[in-house]
Amino acid sequence: MTEPRKALGEAGAETPPVSSDDATLEAWKFTECHDAFRVDMPLGSARQESFDRLRLPGGLINPDTFATLSEAMAFPRAFFDAGRPAASICPRPWIITEAGGTRRGHLTSWPSLPTDLQSAGAEWVDRDVVVDHDLVTSRKPDDMPAVNRAMIRLSASAQRQSRQAVAE
User: Fold this and answer.
1) What is the DSSP string of 1-58?
2) Per the residue annotation, which of 90, 96, 113, 154 is the catalytic one?
């Protein structure tokens, strides 16, 4: 939650926490609640067209809960359907799979997910970071520097394309 948000903020991006809980978002470190963040926007009022990128933080408990909420899954599904940039770390590719984003091709994830992701149609690769079109994935917290660089490059590229399309 914190390192990607910090890196994107330093690159000039706004990263308002969006959550199905309208008050706080708990950040877990393994099975212990590590920190809590104020939710800037409840999921029910968030619209994907208001955001230029999607960042799905890592963690084990939150993605599992998130994937069971149909209203929560509509948000990333809209990003994938629109071809907007997205990034995911650790087990968050569960969300990508549930939202139909594994049709993009190559990705990586936490080491326990290759079979599930391959069954959903993804080409799983064991690398620190994988960029496939508009999707950035990484395996674990140790990969954070590489995924941060990739997210920033992808976001900058998407912004250049957006400015170019407006100018044309």
Assistant:
1) -HHHHHHHHHTT-----EESSSSEEEEEETTEEEEEEE-SEEGGG--GGG-S-EEE--
2) 90
Q: Tens digit of pLDDT for each residue in 32-89?
A: 767 777 878 888 888 888 888 887 777 666 666 666 777 777 888 888 888 888 888 8
| Domain chopping of the chain, boundaries | 2-16+48-167
- Interatomic CA distance for residues 126 and 132, integer angstroms: 14
Instruction: Provide the residue type at 132 as one letter.
Output: D
Rounded to whole angstroms, the Cα distance separating 75 from 88 reads: 14
**69 alpha carbon, distance to own chain's centre:** 16
Residue 129 has pLDDT above 90, yes or no: yes
- Chain centroid, CA 151 distance in Å: 10
Give the global pTM.
0.79
- Is 3.40.640.10 the CATH number for 2-16+48-167? no
Active site residue 90: yes
